[in-house]
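Final report, closing paragraph on structural work. Over the funding period we assembled a curated collection of sequence-structure pairs, and we close with a single example.
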Amino acid sequence: MGPDREIFAKRPLTIEEQIALLQTRGMRIPDKERAARYLRFIGYYRLAVYGVPYKTVGDNYAPGATFDNMLDLYIFDRKLRLHYMDAIERVEVAVRTTISNHMALRHGATWFCNPELFQKEIHHKNLLESIRRDTGHPDVARNGSNHRFCNAFYKRYGPEAVPPSWMVAEVLSFGSWSRTFQNLRERADKAAVAQHFNLPWETLGSWLHALSHVRNICAHHALLWNTVFTIKPALQRFYPGEDDSRLYGQTLVVRHFLKTITRDSSWERRLRELLEQCPRGIAEMGFPAHW
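Its predicted structure, as stored:
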């Protein structure tokens, strides 16, 4: 251990001690029994993140800050994650289907086995390993796959057979499809996929990478509403001057995809209604006042 490192010595606190700690830092908790229930089933560490905007300097809360302020922001963020997951699911299905259809029709049902279609050998190797794992290949998964059609495929054709692209499309993760698209060697293939979404292939690659990160945040129940994103979508070509580091930038990407995929999506309208419930307003998420 280096000379400047501290030794971690914090002990776990009981629910009662957690409430007392919040109170000593200035938070108003009129109903301790109710607060205890939320702390018990959500957790102090998780809830405390949503109390940060209500702090002044250091660990002290601003005058008038309440437990409900923190809880309401937590509930809003949970609703927000579910709303974005709803949209990203549609984008994910559309993207993996489009890539699979194009590549299979042009290069064959097991195109992903051909290393010449990819730029980097390590990425291609990782892709094949992911396919074997996610399809429940008998040599990798002792109990098979969670997907019946994968188990039926290997049972019928044997472990030497390779599942077709349209089967792989149903099990491979969004992140894997994002990396696969970016690692395709031929620009013609990338351009053919991207044109279905009215995008240049460079932009599509950036947007898929960014959305797969947002999806992971939502799937792992992490903080979303005021996150400063380190993985940013390339916006300048379509939305010059817009902030690419906040949720608004990601929203522009989602909106573009949904308008391309479907003509009657109500996602944006429902998002506006949800944002009206934000306890802190929309500016901290990067949304302009009249977006």
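The first helix runs from residue 15 to 24. The chain has two domains: 15-65, 76-285. We thank the funder for supporting this effort.
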